[in-house]
Design a protein that fits this description.
Radius of gyration: 15 Å
Distance between the termini: 11 Å
Order of helices and strands: HHEEEEEEHH
Number of strands: 6
Structural class: alpha+beta
Largest sheet: 6 strands, antiparallel
Shape: globular
């Protein structure tokens, strides 16, 4: 059962990364702007609507009040497949995307069912300059975007030394 869950989670992470990457590329083509030229000073709602909304199939969007879904950031997009993407605002040079592989079901913890992808105004969707060792160490210690990076480095698989139980 654990192997099935790992395979299913890895497939969802790969699909989301692909969908997000394609949305960024399509938006770049349509707007005529490189992702590095997008307006990162927009709030999360305006940013999503301006650059990405038309490339996602979703059932609802929720602006989170009182940190009700703190792991999703402040703007949650409920995707048609039951997953949730959250946008995390971040000033003039950074935006990030949370991805919850099982929607609102628990445990809602970074590295277990919630993963984070960075985006900055210099390089678009970050793939990072991580070595496997650094990604593993940071994933263990922080559960941040390093966990998603580690799974990517490992060819969209959860290796035996992955630090969290799914």
């Amino acid at each position: 059962m654990a192997n099935h869950k790992k395979t299913e989670t890895a497939a969802k992470l790969k699909k989301f990364y692909s969908t997000l990457s394609n949305a960024i590329k399509l938006s770049e083509i349509e707007t005529g702007l490189n992702a590095s030229e997008w307006d990162y000073t927009l709030d999360y709602k305006d940013f999503f609507e301006e650059y990405l909304a038309k490339y996602f199939s979703y059932t609802k969007i929720e602006i989170n009040q009182n940190n009700q879904h703190v792991l999703y950031g402040l703007y949650s997009v409920y995707l048609n497949d039951g997953t949730v993407m959250g946008l995390e605002p971040g000033g003039d040079n950074w935006k990030g995307f949370y991805f919850d592989v099982n929607g609102e079901k628990g445990p809602n913890q970074l590295g277990r069912d919630v993963y984070f992808y960075e985006m900055d105004n210099h390089s678009g969707l970050c793939s990072g300059d991580y070595t496997r060792e650094l990604a593993l160490e940071n994933c263990k210690n922080y559960g941040d975007n390093s966990c998603a990076q580690l799974i990517m480095i490992d060819g969209w698989e959860f290796k035996d030394d992955y630090p969290y139980r799914l």
